[in-house]
Sequence to fold (396 residues):
Amino acid sequence: MEAVPLLPLGAQAQEGAIAEADIQKLVHDHPSVLPIEEIDPAFRRPISICRELRTLAGPIDNFLVTPSGLPVLVECKLWRNPEGRREVVGQILDYAKELSRWSQPDMQREVNIRLGKRGNSLLEKVREVDPDVNEIDFNDALTSNLRRGRFLLLIVGDGIREGVEAIAEYLQRHAGLHFSFGLIELPIYVLPDGSRLVAPRILARTTTVVRNVVSLPHGMTLQETQDEDDGEDGSGDPEWDRLTAVRQQFWKEFLAGLKLDDPQQTIPKPAKQGYLSFMFPAPNGSSWLTVYRDMKKNEVGVFLSASRNSAGEYANQRIVEDWPAVHELLNGTAQKTTDRYGRPQIGDHRTFRDLERSDDRAKALAWLAERVNVFVNVLRPRVHSAVVDYRADGNG
Fold:
């Protein structure tokens, strides 16, 4: 009987070896290769949604979800040393902690961004496999499981050997989540005809790790601003009335063409002022995205705003501290400046020739809509995450 050689793994191995990205693709294309039912039957039949799902803790290698709304997180690893094991276990736990701050709309937004789609692409992917999934039940279950930290966390790697028992000590350091955990060795063999054989093996697993869980409120009260009647009253002054009508028409056109990836972001009304406020999830309306038009300069722009000495200001500071990463996610054109109080401020703006000309106006509206969508996608979840930490530290 002919021996079956092991296919060498690792990006730096000999020609024909596979890398972590290849394992990701294998898991994404064939989720049944994972022996999930042997780890926790509640998570059986997961559906692959996407690879490299963006979170504030980093991209999740593989994200899957069951038709019942249970999330599965997979981290793929080519093991080289014991330190690598500690790092990857800590990493997947960080992902779980971050996702426990999300709700279904947050997940929908990030999946849309990753897949380059709009609507509820997450539900569409699930219904491709199970057409009978009820939208309301699925969304409610997913939000509940995210908030509770009810996940299946899987680390999939090659050649995992000694030291598996030590992983338990890392798991015990993360309170506040209910999760199941599995460590899977996924050796790949080359058969004589050149085809590959995958022989998964469970090396470690937990029953559901139950800890004291503090449930976060599903939403935060947002302070509504900019009612159509807000602002100075210049009625009776023809010039004031003309400028008010010009501003309001501009914002009506802007909002009519605005498409946001984030389904949870509230949309303001067309304002009579030269700006709009998109409120972010911070207590007492203390964080928002200001969107403005300067009529004299023919300039439009956006910038992150916050009340002084507030959770929103704390969030702003946290975001500024992560400026290199934030700057890149904002497509590299945003700037870090200071506001009138000397606080750091993140924003972007562009000047056009004449905003009353139809071609310039159309370009300005399109540019501004793109900027608002990107700023909401990048900054809103960061504000939310920072506010959770702000409250955890005993603040308001």
Observations:
- Residues 358-392 form the longest helix (35 residues).
- DSSP finds eleven helices and 13 strands in the chain.
- Residues 20-205 form a domain with the Trna Endonuclease; Chain: A, domain 1 fold (CATH 3.40.1350).
